[in-house]
Amino acid sequence: MKDLLQTPVQFPCGLTMKNKFMLAPLTNTQSFEDGRLSEDEYQWLTMRAKGQFGLVMTCASHVQASGKGFPGQLGIFSDDHIEGHKRLSEKIKSYGSLAVVQLHHAGMRSPEELIQQKPLCPSNNEKHGAREISSEEIQQLKNDFINAAKRAQKSGYDGVEVHGAHGYILAQFLSSSINNRTDNYGGSLENRSRILFEIVNGIRNTCGEQFLLGVRLSPERFGLKLSEIKQVCERLVEETKIDFLDVSLWDVYKHPEEEEHQHKSLLEHFTALDLKNVHLTVAGNIRNGEDVQKVLNSNVDFVTIGRSAILHHNFPEQVIKDINFKPTEIPVSKAYLKNEGVGENFIDYMSKWSGFVNPD
After folding, report:
1. Which of 61, 123, 154, 342 makes a 20 to 30 Å CA pair with 333?
2. Is 168 designated active site?
């Protein structure tokens, strides 16, 4: 198993990931409100590269100022952000890790008080106080995703991941219950997924064949249907523009919520797909060495680690050394987290998680 964990992953674009561990793109609220990189965010991410994550992905980085999803979000919507990103990508790569930015727009999930305007959504959404995005704004959104990828490339990153999961704007377009448009971006699945494919194609055409390109999708919640997300995955594979699919399952052991699909686990629904040259990574409740082993043995190419990466900046090193490695028990102290390169704002954010941080 140790050899498998350290076997490189060769992507279609030609880049190589040195092992089977990717750092999950984690919301951490550590950067400056204008989207510039902070020292805390720099420390958090570069320590994970030092801890031997083969691919280090930033938190969701918004491609428009109005697409901000949380306070202290790292941005990539302005050239003012390039200086920080250059510093970050250079340091991540110095440890032999691939450096990747996750491109994001929160859509209706942008808090109005944060962006000082009504959030955008494919259709008017009363629950979220969101207004329908216009046809012109859709073209702008598409271009801003592509321009953000160009900015990432200019900043020295190896690639980008397009965030189409978790009910953010691209997932809102994919949802038949949220997206009620009657133009070319609503109605059929082909129309609802149009913007995602236009962004993927635009990034590939603009950034070239040797730029690493992934897409994150989630198969449930926010009006998403498992069967449709699987169809989107299959089309992404067929069109050969992406290098990897990042499927966020919430829990790799769970079964689908939709009754007609409960004959096998969510994970099995995706490992059964013919992904050809596209690599598959999954996230959700992969907590220890045993979980890593089970998931990799399930026809998954590499694992995406969130919570255990917070607890141990060197989780990959620990698991490679001992496949039975189990992370430290929670709750943990603030001092423990600071020692793991976690900043004050991130600790405050995690303090809202049940039983994760010891109150002082």
Report:
1. 61
2. yes
